[in-house]
Amino acid sequence: MKQPLQLQINGESRQMLVEPFYSLLDCLRDEAQLTGAKKGCDEGDCGACTVLMDGQPVTSCLVLAHSAHHADITTIEGLASVAALSPVQRAFVEHGGLQCGFCIPGLIMSATGFLQSNPNPTEEDVRFAIGGNLCRCTGYARVVEAIMAAAAEMRAAQ
Ligand code: FES
Ligand code: FES
Q: What percent of the chain has pLDDT over 70?
């Protein structure tokens, strides 16, 4: 039976009625109409569904929506507007860190959460942080380069 759920999504309070078995990913995509988080494997292996939950990257396909009751959720749609990309989004574009794009929302959310906790990472730190995000296209070199560049830009701006 559907039960009430309250989430803070991208700064906006959202009330919904969802089944107890619903994942946070399905809730975001089907109930909140936010389709930036992608459903790749739906079992925690690919990272395409990564969002921030109370500031921490989570694979939203593995999070029961009701366990996120009252949590603060940030999706790729909440990072920035098209007119003003976030530093991580901009760096992915400038450094060619994307091809087909399917994995990119998840990679950007992992990188964003990671840089909030480690603003001065090594390349090895970055590779570890995105270890759960699979990308079939880029070979990761430009992705890592983009995240390192975003980190440098964010440090310089502080
Ligand atoms: S869809 Fe969640 S980890 Fe692949
Ligand atoms: S850019 Fe295509 S899967 Fe990563």
A: 99
